[in-house]
Amino acid sequence: MNMNGNPHPRVLIIGLDGATFDLIKPWAAEGRLPTLQRLMQEGAWGTLKVELPPGTVPNWPSFATGKNPGKHGIIWWLKRDPQTADFSIISSADLRGQTLWDIASDYGLPVGVVNFPLGYPPHPINGFMISGLLTPQTATDFTYPAALREELEANIGPYRIFPQVLNSRGNEAAYLEELHCTLDGRLQATRYLMQHKPWNLFFVLFGATDWVMHAFWKYHDPSHPYHDPAAAQRLGHAIRSIYEHADQAVGELLKLVDDHTTVILMSDHGSGPAVGRSMLNTWLLNSGLLQIKRNPVSQLKLLTFRLGFTPAALLPWAVRLKLLNTKVKRKLDPSRTGKKNPLRRIFLSYNDVDWPRTKAFTMGGMGQIFINVQGNHANGCVAPGREYEELCQFIVEKVKEIKLPGSDQPYVQHAYRRHELYWGEHADVMPDILLYPTDMAYLDSGVDFFSNRLFFSTGFISGGHRTNGIFFLRGPSVRPGLELRDVTIRDLAPTALHLLGLPVPEDMDGRVVSEALNEQFVKSHPIQRVMVSGNGQQRNGQGYATTADEAQIRARLASLGYLN
After folding, report:
1. 267-306: pLDDT as tens digits
2. In angstroms, rounded to a whole number, what is the distance separating the alpha carbons of residues 474 and 61?
3. What is the DSSP letter of 270?
4. Which of 2, 211, 362, 534 is 20 to 30 Å from 77 by CA-CA measure?
């Protein structure tokens, strides 16, 4: 019962990862996406402002908690141990603060969560949970309760977390087929759960709309520098086919809810072309802000690096000669920081960085620059206070001089200082500087020294992220046909809680999108606030059980272009 003594309403939240109006609007106008077209007519909708950097991380955590990354503590797929400088994959144990389904669960409402990317390992809630993208392929502990996995298998067959075929050259058709199979499997599981389990709040994420654009944008877009007209005859329909399939899936789910259910459909970011990589560690190295150890081995690796002996230069040859089987790829995973990693023993890497003399380094996508401050990092050499501020200002000014390849256009549109984007109890783990590129077609490689050039091309990943997400609201209290502006991804959690008849925690950074709601509902349902939401202590998992599990996740993220 809600606070007015009436039964609680229902809220269904559907995520289409990476979906963008840049594709939806023209295809809807052609009649290819009738469900999304109908949602635009029957509810409120608009472009969703997302967190920087515009990726799965940090945006799905910001959606779920209603908070900026400085409060939920997650900014990238990898986390760095400040003492050892080693990297490891994040898990649900790293997400700080309660999610909206944790809050609804605490109020006694039954909830369901399917495919939340930061959901592994799952934790107990008043309902059920199936983890998502960061779940190892061989894991059997991806559901709560544990028996749900067997129940799903008995009723709909084996549940696919991720496509069984990874994106790679030569298997494009098989990968596309797997994307469709995974999307359909997610739909069948969601249909079963919606029909057979009690729920007032249900969240499901379809990831195929993001995965397909990373692999197939060059076939879809004739202006892409890697566009192959002959290949486009076979694969140019790939992105559209997934969007059409997703539209059908959304339509199937809408048939399962009544007129008293509010539907929120959203994405975590937009999509667009990607033509290459940027290598900001190389820029920091050339600028003297990142130093290499003086020992003979590291200096020899630095010399060969400057001469062009880099993974980026040799990778195409390894692909042509078919030298990279799964076992070799795992051994050469560049995000493994251990000294036994063959790639790091051969090429210049973070193992060769002279940290006591290094003032700045990058870690994470889209230009995340960290200052090596004393007390914040092992072997920090930059004094807090004046030296720190002067160094930040120096970098902010110098990066503006970087030009896009073959152009006089600056690579950096804006260089943000940490306090401009993030605040809260975990803001100190956020990057000190974050770059907003003029053209997001170049993806930052994140760690190490993959190339001795600031910009280089791979031709593998041809689609990347943008800052324009999407959102739709439809329900009995929503004004129909209304296009909204200035809605952020943090606003959707408090809006969902309010529509459920629950108070909104004061420590949420988002707001209730009351302008989308009709006047009668706004007057009869004043927004209520409570002090703070909980700290999510129930997510006490230890992350990945084995190094093999983590290696699977690294390979999966690499296939999407998130790791080198």
Report:
1. 999 999 999 888 999 999 999 999 999 999 999 999 999 9
2. 23
3. E
4. 534
